UniProtKB/TrEMBL annotation:
Catalysed conversion reaction: FMNH2 + O2 = dialurate + 5,6-dimethylbenzimidazole + D-erythrose 4-phosphate + H(+)
Keywords: Cobalamin biosynthesis, Flavoprotein, FMN, NAD, NADP, Nucleotide-binding, Oxidoreductase
Origin superkingdom: Bacteria
Protein name stated in the entry: 5,6-dimethylbenzimidazole synthase
Single GO molecular function: oxidoreductase activity, acting on paired donors, with incorporation or reduction of molecular oxygen
Pfam family, any one: Nitroreductase
InterPro entries assigned: BluB, Nitroreductase, Nitroreductase-like, Nitroreductase/BluB
SUPFAM superfamilies: FMN-dependent nitroreductase-like
Enzyme class: oxidoreductase
Length: 223
């Protein structure tokens, strides 16, 4: 019998575990495969519920979810992306700019729903448990919410793409964000028929996944 407020922590069933790992490994960043079909409200609320269940420093839940469906707002964000993307391409060495220009890096106007997940840096007051020695833990918490949403979207068969090639100031202006609120993630959400079986950047020859073993150190960095 578990103590009050606790419940057994045993592993999930084989099928449940397989589903969790499947969502993790088959989650993809989607840019180009969005269908125009609407996302219904129940589905959207399940996805936002997953995001809202994320861990957060001091339980401060610093996020807000701005739901964007209007053509007018999406067009403005698309124009902001275009300007930033032109700057971005020019930052790469000449030999990579051709491939960069061919990459599809957003689905802002194709996706029926866009979401901006923000971090309110003032939530919970000036002193927050767990954020006392690392001011950015509120931003990390918000990133956890994004990942929860991304995994839930995969389980629901919904595509999600993160667009970060945007100037914060443009997003702040378009979405009317107050100064203490940071736009952490601009996301495109929509139904999809197919997903890449590997990161699209890998499929297109831009980058590859590093082997897991190369990421693991023993005891200290470098060992
Ligand atoms: C913080 C952050 C920001 C971005 C991304 C991801 C993350 C975590 N990614 C998606 C990224 O390219 C992708 O996750 C990796 O290439 C791995 O592919 P899968 O997500 O496994 O499909 C991304 N992709 C894109 O086309 N345009 C973008 O602006 C961004 N920005």
């Amino acid at each position: 019998m578990a103590a009050d407020g606790l419940k057994p922590a045993g592993p999930f069933s084989d099928a449940e575990r397989a589903a969790v790992y499947r969502a993790i490994h088959e989650r993809r960043d989607v840019r180009g495969q969005f269908l125009p079909d609407p996302i219904d409200d129940d589905l959207l609320m399940r996805l936002l519920g997953a995001a809202h269940a994320a861990p957060s420093v001091g339980l401060m839940q610093p996020w807000n979810f701005i739901v964007i469906r209007s053509d007018a707002v999406r067009q403005q964000v698309r124009a902001a992306f275009q300007a930033a993307n032109d700057e971005a391409r020019a930052m790469f060495p000449d030999e990579k700019q051709g491939l960069y220009a061919q990459l599809k890096l957003e689905g802002i106007t194709e996706a029926p729903v866009n979401l901006c997940i923000t971090c309110d840096r003032s939530r919970g007051g000036p002193v927050v448990l767990g954020r006392t020695h690392n001011r950015d833990t509120d931003l990390y918490s918000t990133a956890c919410a994004v990942q929860n949403l991304w995994l839930a979207a995969r389980a629901e068969g919904v595509g999600l793409g993160w667009v970060s090639i945007l100037r914060d100031d443009d997003l702040r202006r378009i979405l009317n964000l107050p100064d203490h609120v940071v736009p952490v993630a601009y996301l495109c959400l929509g139904h999809v028929r197919e997903l890449y079986d590997q990161p699209e950047l890998q499929a297109r020859g831009w980058a590859g996944r590093h082997p897991l073993q190369a990421m693991i150190h023993n005891e200290t960095w470098g060992d």
